[in-house]
Structures are given as C-alpha cells and as structure tokens.
Amino acid sequence: MASRVWLITGTTSGFGAEFVKNLLARGDKVIATARDTSKIKHFSSQGAATLELDLSADQSALNQTIEKAIEIYGQIDVVVNNAGYSHFGIFEDESYENTMKQYQTHVFGTMGVARACLPHFRSRKAGTFVFLGSIAAWGGMPALSSYCGSKAALRTSVETFQAETQSLGIRTLLVEPGFFRTELLNSNNARYAETNIDDYKPLTEGLFKQFKQYHQQQPGDPAKGVQRIIDVVKGEGEAAGKDFPTTLALGPDAVDAIRKKCNDTLKLLEEWESLSSSTNFD
C-alpha cells in the first residue's frame, strides 16, 4: 500500500509523539506539529517534517498553516487532531479565561484545523479526520467541568461534522480514550486551580492529590492505543475487513464507562418514559 501523509497536532509527548514514531516505522510520511517546534525538532532527524501550529490562532492563521503543510508533500491524507491538556478547578470559582482556553484547545482550535483542511479533502474527494476525544465526554467529573464540557462539545461537533461530510468521500473517526499513561497529568501539563471556598476544599484536596498520584500509574499503554487507531484508519490488524467506525472507545475502562452510561440512560428512559412521552397535542 502506498504511504500516506499524516498531519498530527500536539506531538511533543503522549499520543502525538507515539503517532509520529509508529507512522514513520510503518513507512508513512508525517507532518508533526506543535506550538513550540523546538520541542519536536528531534523528529526531523527521524524523517518527519515539523511545523508550528497554534490552536489559539484565528481561522485565517490556521488556513495559512494548513496551506504550508500541504506544500510539504503536495497533499495530506489523514489529519489527527490530538492536542489537548487537562484543567482542574471547581465550577463556582472557575474563571472565564481558563474555561475559554480549554474550549479553544479542545473545540474551537481543533475544529478550526479541520475547517482549514476541508477544501483540500473536498477537492480530492478523499481524506480522513481523527479526533482525540475522551470518556470525559460521557459524564461530568468533579473539578473537571471545563475539560468534560469541552470534550462533550467536541463529541457532538464531530458527529455533526461527520454527517455533513460523509457523502464527500471524507471519513471521520472520533476516538474516546480512557486513562492512558501519557503526560496529561504531568504537573507541567495539568493545571490545578486551588479553590478559596472552604466548602469545596475537602473535595479538591482529595481529588487533586488522587490525580497527581495517578500520573504514570494509568493502565493504558499509549503505544498500543496509537497502534490500534492507526490499524483502524488503515484497515489493518484486528480492523481488517471491518467497516470503518465513526467512534472508537479506547481502553477497557473506556468501554466499561461508556457501556455503563448507555445502560444507565436506557434505564432512566424506561423509568420516566410515560411522563416524558405525554407531551404531544391531544
């Protein structure tokens, strides 16, 4: 099979870095991007192209960045929207600025990259988008309202995006990982906003300590997770012969959490169906 050209956001560590390494080993071409390219310059010696991409940029700037990316190899076949970070803070004292930064990274910037790539994919009637979501989109978690909310917004945005573009030869995959041993909980990446409200301090003190201690204890192996995603995109390994999915739970904890949410939702619908369904005109 001919090599493909992949553009990947957020390649300084975690899933992003694993994508670069795995794809180069498979013989594909990679455009590794980051806000600070000095942190990914080592990928150049390994055969990847590197490019600065800032998800806080406006649409015009993102369009220009993608135009530069296309010029590198003449085309892009797969876009992996991977960049993200975690922010911890109680909803009541969460700032507008912190909330907007979370949504800018996970929703506005991510969809801006996809929007910038669409003309190229439409002109070729081909292309694949991969969006890295989270099981956090399936239920709220204390002290993670901005993270959960932005991942839930990404989920529904991608579903709409897929419905609009599937007839154009464009494929869309939303991956929803559980807890993987990336740098997401690294003290340099995770942001913890200490509360000044005494009522919440017992909650935040326990949760923050728990998440900090969980760093590098997560069960998921990022290398295996990335391998599975690439197999799905390429139709190889366990994905061979299967229809391309629109969503993919990644990790047994993700499978369990999503299944529980679905079962709980069905139970709730059944319990309240009579009341919920008695709202039409007589």
From TrEMBL:
Coiled coil: none annotated. Keywords: Oxidoreductase. The keyword Ligase does not apply. CDD domains: 17beta-HSD-like_SDR_c. InterPro entries: NAD(P)-bd_dom_sf (IPR036291), SDR_fam (IPR002347), SDR_oxidoreductase (IPR051911). Pfam families: adh_short (PF00106). SUPFAM superfamilies: NAD(P)-binding Rossmann-fold domains (SSF51735). It comes from the Eukaryota. One of its GO terms (molecular function) is oxidoreductase activity. Belongs to the short-chain dehydrogenases/reductases (SDR) family. This is NAD(P)-binding Rossmann-fold containing protein. It comes from Glarea lozoyensis (strain ATCC 20868 / MF5171). The lineage of its organism: Eukaryota, Fungi, Dikarya, Ascomycota, Pezizomycotina.
